[in-house]
Design brief:
The protein is mostly helical. The chain folds into two domains: 176 residues, no CATH class; 92 residues, no CATH class. Helices cover 73% and strands 1% of the residues. It contains twelve helices and two strands; from the N terminus they run H-H-H-E-H-H-H-H-E-H-H-H-H-H. A two-stranded parallel ribbon has the order 1-2. Helix 11 crosses helix 12. The longest helix has 49 residues. It is globular. The two termini are 30 Å apart.
């Protein structure tokens, strides 16, 4: 059943192209409305969003920074005590803090409304799926949402503190003083969290690409070495240029790639099972026709 053979609300006739566009429009409107609602909530709780979330990773009292420092004390080294020095942020524009507040609210709205966006996307395409396809794809929205938020939290708790410590303390000369713009700080935090959130969707991407026949488990195994190179490049892009941060990102990304192979194997088995059932039913029908 194709997407354009979905039934109308009355269930009596197929929807026209314009009806599909109208339905898609309402799914988009509801997604944008969800983003707007979460944006307003984030805008109202300004102090909590900025003081407890956004500005926290640069502080020595942040969870990750404290754990690393305690680990450093156990091995008798101060190298792991990151973000121990105060990182001052500045604003250089008259309306800079207001526009920053609005930009952060929009990003927070997009992140928090991500499950709603996936749900609306799923509701639009679900009627076009066969019953068995819909059954096997059940839970996809929940799984994709959990993977996304796991990636965001990984970027927030693991990569952001390391990035702020490295970039904030790096200097080409003692004559040059770092004066970090608040927009630059927030841009770095947002790009890290959103990038890791999307990268953690790799198993879901593997599921759908296998479903439509673009990739196979053997294909993913064959190009595993190439994937490692891509993973290293991605790690270098979304992390500061130090080896520890890149290794920290490489391991979970490689793990996600291996999970993607497992997902692809499962999808191939389900496809083979459906094909065998179809051929069996087809043979049965041919036998009945021959006997009759």
């Amino acid at each position: 059943m194709s997407m354009f053979s979905k039934k109308s609300k009355k269930g009596k006739e197929e929807m026209s192209f314009l009806e599909h566009l109208e339905e898609l429009r309402w799914h988009i409107i509801r997604s944008v409305l969800a983003i707007f609602i979460f944006m307003i909530i984030a805008f109202v709780f300004k102090n909590f969003i900025f003081d407890k979330i956004i500005l926290a990773p640069k502080s020595s009292t942040f969870f990750t920074n404290r754990i690393l420092c305690q680990l450093g004390e156990l091995v008798n080294t101060k190298v792991l005590c990151i973000n121990s020095k105060h990182l001052a942020l500045i604003n250089i524009k008259m309306s800079g803090q207001l526009t920053t507040h609005i930009a952060v609210s929009i990003v927070a709205g997009i992140i928090l409304a991500f499950p709603v966006f996936l749900w609306e996307f799923w509701k639009f395409f679900k009627p076009a799926l066969r019953p068995n396809e819909s059954k096997h794809a059940r839970g996809a929205v929940l799984t994709a949402s959990l993977l996304f938020f796991t990636g965001v939290l990984f970027g927030y708790y693991m990569l952001s503190p390391l990035s702020f410590h490295f970039l904030g303390s790096y200097e080409v000369s003692q004559e040059v003083t770092n004066q970090i713009n608040i927009r630059s700080y927030i841009g770095t935090l947002s790009s890290i969290c959103l990038a890791t959130g999307l990268i953690f969707e790799l198993p879901i991407i593997a599921f759908f690409l296998t479903k439509i026949g673009i990739i196979t488990p053997s294909f993913m195994r064959k190009y595993r070495k190439h994937a490692i190179v891509v993973i290293v490049i991605l790690s270098a892009i979304i992390t500061p240029p130090d080896v520890f941060s890149q290794i920290l990102v490489c391991f979970p990304l490689f793990g996600l790639y291996e999970i993607g192979i497992i997902v692809s194997i499962r999808v191939m088995k389900l496809n083979k099972k459906k094909h065998d059932e179809f051929m069996k039913d087809n043979d049965s029908n041919n036998a009945e026709n021959t006997n009759s």
